[in-house]
# Entry
Amino acid sequence: MDEQSELLKAVREIRDLIRLMAEPAIAERDRNFRAELIRLVGSSAAKGKSVLLMDGTLTQAEIRQKTNVNQGHLSTLVKQLKESKLLSDDDGKKPKLAISVPPNFFDAGGKDGR
# Structure
């Protein structure tokens, strides 16, 4: 094994150790963000569907067309998501959720330990 391969192997081992050490903090962070996301969406199926479409490729108008959510409700939701640091998009025109959630995230009201 040459020197460069050994260095790459060592860097990968260090990366894996850092991930292992950081996992509890990452899990806690995501749990808090997910709880806040559930709180903001509430029991609205349209808002939940809207959030799931927030991948940075659709404008708010396109999301409204696909979900039939009220324009005011969507604008308010986007504002709340931004304030809660749940969006990675700065201007909110094409909102992108800052955390990943599965497609069934809002099923059963998020009461399955997320």
Remarks:
- The CA atoms of residues 41 and 47 lie 6 Å apart.
- Helices lie at 3-41, 45-52, 60-67, 71-83.
